[in-house]
Amino acid sequence: MRLTILCLFISMLAACNSTGGAGLDPTPVTSSIPPIMVIGFVGGFIRHDNVAHGGVQLAAGLRRDYRSGVYVRVFENRRSEDAHKEIVRLLDTNHDGKLSEEEKQEAEIIIYGHSWGGSETVALAKVLQSDGIPVLLTIQVDSVAKIGEDDSLIPSNVAEAVNYYQLNGIVHGCPKIRAADPSRTKIIGNYCFDYSSHPVSCPGNRWYAYLFERSHIAIECDPRVLNQVDALIRSKLPAQTKVQFHKP
Would you say 141 and 229 are in contact if contact means Cβ atoms under 8 Å apart? Predict the structure, then answer.
């Protein structure tokens, strides 16, 4: 209980010191054809526009390179319901207020998230499963399960899933994800990173977050992880320029 309260306090402080930046608005949608959707979730109490965080930077790069046909948006992990409503809105191409089976099967959705955002990634995929909506790919980065959620079991509507985690420090992620139905979901891998011997600098994060969540933050801004996540997402999108995340 004390650990949970401490982690919540640290995340709240980090959220209070968040900063915005350019290129953070979702890609506008003008076509009647539903776009490929890339939905990101930030962790803790971090704001969706806090550019100190890798998931926000990644989304900005995608928006810069994909001007049409791809919808990219980052949400706070507590706003999963808003993300779900936005997905349904984009799929409802005839604007009749409900989704047909054809509209559902047109869905091309990628979801990623860090920390509590990783937990919400799986939670949103499960909601979409209850809707009968498929998901192309889920990506979890040091996923920390929220109360009442199971971030280790990937629902069968997800085609592919991958998990990046680390085990250093007091806050660390889910070490293994598994498919509810292995015949329908491919687990790309569970990849462990060690920051005790290979530290990563994360400019923009406050000292208290760095002190208590050093490795948990490091994996989220590690160029190795960001480049792998970026490459996986872009492998599902039309060919564009690859953005490299360089170590500060």
Answer: yes
Residue identified by tokens 């309260």 is: 5
**Bridge partners of residue 192, in order along the sequence:** 165
Which two tokens mark 182? 């292995």
Please say whether the beta carbons of 125 and 158 come within 8 A: yes
Predicted confidence (pLDDT) per residue in 173-218, tens digit: 889 999 999 999 999 999 999 888 777 877 765 545 555 677 788 8
d(CA 122, CA 110): 11
Exposed/middle/buried for residue 236 (C-beta within 10 Å: 0-12, 13-18, 19+) = middle
Contact 205, 77 (CB under 8 A): no
Longest dimension (CA), the chain: 56
- With a CB cutoff of 8 Å and minimum separation 6, the contacts of 136 are 36, 108, 109, 110, 158, 159, 160, 236
Angle of helix 214-221 versus helix 223-234 axis, rounded to 10: 40
Distance CA 55, CA 211 (A): 21
* pLDDT tens digits for range 22-73: 455 665 554 568 899 999 999 987 889 888 888 999 999 999 999 889 999 9
Is residue 53 within 8 A of residue 220, CB to CB? The reply is yes
**96 phi and psi, to 5 degrees?**
-100, 5
Is the whole-model pTM more than 0.90? no
